[in-house]
Automatic annotation (TrEMBL):
<protein>
    <recommendedName>
        <fullName>Thiol methyltransferase 1</fullName>
    </recommendedName>
</protein>
<dbReference type="InterPro" id="IPR008854">
    <property type="entry name" value="TPMT"/>
</dbReference>
<keyword id="KW-0949">S-adenosyl-L-methionine</keyword>
<dbReference type="Pfam" id="PF05724">
    <property type="entry name" value="TPMT"/>
</dbReference>
<keyword id="KW-0489">Methyltransferase</keyword>
<dbReference type="GO" id="GO:0032259">
    <property type="term" value="P:methylation"/>
</dbReference>
<keyword id="KW-0808">Transferase</keyword>
<dbReference type="InterPro" id="IPR029063">
    <property type="entry name" value="SAM-dependent_MTases_sf"/>
</dbReference>
<keyword id="KW-0597">Phosphoprotein</keyword>
<dbReference type="GO" id="GO:0008757">
    <property type="term" value="F:S-adenosylmethionine-dependent methyltransferase activity"/>
</dbReference>
Amino acid sequence: MDAARIKAWQVKATPWDAGDVQPAFRELLDERWDEVGVSLDALKDGKALVAGCGRGCDAAFIAAHGIDTLGIDLSPTAIDVAKKHLASQPGAPSNIAFQQADFFAFPLPNDERFSLAFDYTFFCALPPEPFRKQWGARYAEVIRPGGLLICLAYPLDGNREGGPPYSVSEEAYDAVLSDHFEKIYSKHPSQMAEDRPVGRDKMLVYRRQ
């Protein structure tokens, strides 16, 4: 999976790269955040993490909301694309950094855990065994108590086999997060990526206990 992702960015075969903020994520932060019940201001004394950040649009969106943000990707090509894309945007936030790193092994900046993380097209890219349990354990390591993990769960394809992207379910997220996180939000978005069928994705928010 690691080599395939790196190669995909090298040859520009990245169908998951929408080139913009995910509409469901934008809707959550800008229109539905009150429903989550946690003030964004309470997260601004920490930093946000976007693993598998790709072009970095979602990471920059978080930074624009006033939270210092780190975007990481295993692919050095993706990080180069992210830096160039950010530099090309008028009024781009300055409180953001991109770094080539392995999510499962990178050292925490200044040994400080994150107050927020956003995960999309990363969970679904991992072969369910053994990586999903490792994914959940790693987020428990890097997010501070009271911090939030926002997941755009996609694709909700039931029992479809094969991948990536591998089919996911809300229960699959719960299974690997419930030991250390409390789920505080679960709703299908009304704003979705172009041509995406209704019900194929869901916004989930978990709070680190």
